[in-house]
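Q: How do we represent a protein-ligand complex in a form that can be generated token by token?
A: Start from the inputs.
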Amino acid sequence: LVPVGIIGTGKYVPDRILTNQDLEQMVDTNDEWIVTRTGMRERRLASPEQASSDLAYEAAVKAVQAAGISAEQLDLIVVATVTPDMSFPSTACLLQAKLGASKAAAFDLSAACSGFIYGLANASNFIATGVYKYALVIGAECLSKITDYTDRNTCILFGDGAGAVVLGQVPEGRGFKSFELGADGSGGNLLKVSAGGSRRPASAQTLDNKEHFIYMAGSEVFKFAVRIMGNAAEAALSKAGMTKTDIDLLVPHQANIRIIQAALNRLDLSEEKCMINLHKYGNVSAASIPIALAEAVEEGRVQESDRLVLVGFGGGLTWGASVIVW
Ligand code: ACO
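Then emit the structure tokens for the protein with acetyl coenzyme *A bound:
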């Protein structure tokens, strides 16, 4: 097998900022509650004209440039998203056209907030087996478009943005060392957008019932998240022949500071060894991990040979973790 790793990263967040103070004007909440319960202070919101493929494009251009290749060299584009531009064509196909990546196969992947890790696992195998040379994996979300800004249980959490990586061959000893993916469909009802699919097609009733917005059973998802983040990270480490003392940087899904702190406790890690940016961007679902990774790279927090653990969880329910030697 060819050793595969991340050879370029990029991120994009829209300019518009939604602060806790803005939210105080919209629902019965306050800055202190939001900060202590979630760690969040601001999120970015797409403009009415922007859709996920537009955010994905901006992040992708940076990642392709950082990888030192051109879009025409891409063999595969995988977009992980719960907010595609439309049901079909896929956001990946829309992006392929925008990028001029005429050679690339393209598809979307649905695994909610775990989608980026699922996408890495998927795309890296095409390269490891010699089928493809370069793959673009993206998490891109416009969660603001499916958020009910009258529901204080959810509207404080979510933001918009995109993170992208290019995968390619890396020197022996570096790159992806393991993946741990999982799902528990019996928890599907805890986190969902009920309508707009074949079960509940869009109708006046689904609109009235607000079934096109995110529904979340917050405390159940919280308990699941606290358990699964540690479990998934430890399983990925064990598959890589490593232990928690080997971790140089943890890049977790940015859902809630208390969920991240529980994972840090479980892994005996200090906050210095963890990338945290949820105070600036909130939870951006599939885009959270690649945005955090790209930001860690920008900030010089990732050096050659560092051992990274990416770990996330989300609707499905799903979870995923990966160990990478940078
Ligand atoms: N402002 C003020 N009060 C609030 C707010 C708010 N924004 N939201 C809820 N409350 C109230 C509740 O109504 C409740 O009041 P009550 O006791 O009178 O009923 C009280 O605060 C406590 O509510 P809890 O839900 O118990 O608060 P909790 O500490 O669990 O925090 C939270 C809620 C932040 C949502 C937490 O449960 C959480 O982070 N859950 C996981 C979320 C998550 O990770 N989701 C992943 C989604 S990713 C994806 O796939 C899109």
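DSSP finds ten helices and 13 strands in the chain. The radius of gyration is 18 Å.
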